[in-house]
């Protein structure tokens, strides 16, 4: 039986489902596809069984009607048969009575008339008796037909009950698969949420803050200021450019600080979703405010040479805080080797 195979594969699907906690969305997709295929098969099975059930029920109705018609015909035939026998019996009684009473008649005219009547009665009885045997095979034939259609109806009813049971089982599978699918959809949504979070926290990619080719004039960790005004360690990279050249946000984020500093000049600090803060220093103009949300590639300022700077450039820094601490070399994140 096909539905038993389906039931078996459904149970396998269920086992995968219970095992599938904290799995990748794409593996859930496979399960969803598998369940959907099963559901399609179950639905087809349901349709086919429903059609079969309808056909069998039509047959039952048809056989019932035939059985009833033959039963009616049988009953009528039996009644007619009985009526004929009753009529013969009544006529026979009259015949016997007349035959007895004729002995007492003395008038010859009356005797002759009564004798004729007796002969007529005998003829009538004989005629009716001749019809009698025709009923028996007819009744027998109707009885066979009634029995046949009754048997057919019972067989169909049996088939109907079996189909109904199958249909019930398949419908249960349908419901079960649908609920499994619903659970899988929920799992998938959950897994996708997790993956998106992971992707966000794991990715450390930054876009270039400039539209021009990145040329580094001073790298991370190099002694930038021999006079010691800006410290001895260079906590970012200096990028070559033109005065008032557009400076862009290197990644989506939120402006957490802007200001002017003796050393940094006009600066912007942006907080990102990946645990980093990007720093843009020595700007000629600041085009954003604290708490602004910015998108990667959005213009946030113009390049300049404000603060402790000897020429137009962008000092670009990456740190894990907004407190001018925990700087990392931004070069790898900008794909500068
Ligand atoms: Zn610098």
Keywords:
single chain; about 325 residues; alpha+beta; Helix Hairpins; Glucose Permease (Domain IIA); 2 domains; eight-stranded antiparallel sheet; three-stranded antiparallel sheet; 11 strands; about 55% helix; about 15% strand; binds zinc ion
List the helices and strands and how they pair.
Elements: H1 2-19, H2 25-101, H3 108-202, E1 216-218, E2 237-240, E3 246-248, E4 253-261, E5 265-271, E6 277-283, E7 285-286, E8 293-294, E9 299-302, E10 313-319, E11 327-328
Antiparallel strand pairs: 1-2, 2-10, 3-9, 4-5, 4-8, 5-6, 6-10, 7-9, 10-11
Helix pairs in contact: 1-2, 1-3, 2-3
Summarize the structure in words.
Helix 1 runs antiparallel to helix 2, helix 1 (2-19) packs parallel to helix 3 and helix 2 packs antiparallel against helix 3. The two termini are 66 Å apart. The chain has 3 helices and 11 strands, in the order αααβββββββββββ. It has 2 domains: 2-202, Helix Hairpins, CATH 1.10.287.1490; 216-334, Glucose Permease (Domain IIA). It is of the alpha+beta class. The relative contact order is 0.10. Strands 1, 2, 4, 5, 6, 8, 10 and 11 form an 8-stranded antiparallel sheet that branches. It has a 3-stranded antiparallel sheet with strand order 3-9-7, with no helix packed on it. The structure holds zinc ion.
Which sequence of SSEs, written as H and E, runs from N to C? HHHEEEEEEEEEEE
Q: Describe the biggest sheet?
A: 8 strands, antiparallel
Kindly report the CATH topology of the largest domain. Helix Hairpins
Give the strand tally.
11
Distinct helical segment count:
3
> How helical, in percent, are the residues?
55-70%
Q: CATH top level of the largest domain?
A: Mainly Alpha
Distance between the termini: 66 Å
CA-based gyration radius? 53 Å
The distinct ligands, each listed once, are:
zinc ion
Strand content: 5-15%
Summed over residues and divided by their number, the pLDDT gives a mean of 88
* Class by SSE composition: alpha+beta
CATH architecture term of the largest domain = Orthogonal Bundle
User: Runs with pLDDT <50, length 5+?
Assistant: 6-22
Shape: rod-shaped
Q: Tell me the count of domains.
A: 2
Pfam family, one: Peptidase_M23
Organism: Enterococcus columbae DSM 7374 = ATCC 51263
GO molecular function: metalloendopeptidase activity
Keywords: Coiled coil, Signal
């Amino acid at each position: 039986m096909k539905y038993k195979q389906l039931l078996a594969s459904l149970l396998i699907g269920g086992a995968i489902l219970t095992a599938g906690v904290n799995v990748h969305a794409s593996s859930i997709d496979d399960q969803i596809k598998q369940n959907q295929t099963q559901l399609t098969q179950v639905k087809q099975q349901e349709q086919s069984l429903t059609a079969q059930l309808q056909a069998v029920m039509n047959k039952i109705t048809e056989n019932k009607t035939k059985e009833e018609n033959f039963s009616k015909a049988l009953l009528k035939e039996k009644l007619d048969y009985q009526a004929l026998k009753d009529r013969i019996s009544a006529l026979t009684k009259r015949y016997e009575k007349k035959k007895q009473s004729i002995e007492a008649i003395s008038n010859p005219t009356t005797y002759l008339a009564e004798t004729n009547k007796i002969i007529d009665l005998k003829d009538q009885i004989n005629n009716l008796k001749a019809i009698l045997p025709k009923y028996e095979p007819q009744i027998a034939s109707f009885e066979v037909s009634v029995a046949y259609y009754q048997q057919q109806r019972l067989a169909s009813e049996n088939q109907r009950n079996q189909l109904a049971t199958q249909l019930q089982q398949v419908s249960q599978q349908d419901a079960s698969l649908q609920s499994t699918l619903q659970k899988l959809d929920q799992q998938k949504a959950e897994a996708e949420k997790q993956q998106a979070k992971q992707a966000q926290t794991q990715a450390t990619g930054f876009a270039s803050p400039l539209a021009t080719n990145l040329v580094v004039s001073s790298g991370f960790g190099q002694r930038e200021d021999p006079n010691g005004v800006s410290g001895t360690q260079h906590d970012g990279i200096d990028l070559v450019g033109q005065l008032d050249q557009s400076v862009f946000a290197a990644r989506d984020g939120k402006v957490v600080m802007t200001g002017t500093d003796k050393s940094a000049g006009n600066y912007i600090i942006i907080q990102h979703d990946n645990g980093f803060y990007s720093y843009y220093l020595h700007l000629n103009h600041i085009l954003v405010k604290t708490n602004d949300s910015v998108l990667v590639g959005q213009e946030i300022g113009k390049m300049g040479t404000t603060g402790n700077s000897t020429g137009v450039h962008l000092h670009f820094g990456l740190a894990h805080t907004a407190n001018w601490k925990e700087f990392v070399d931004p070069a790898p994140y900008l794909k500068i080797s």
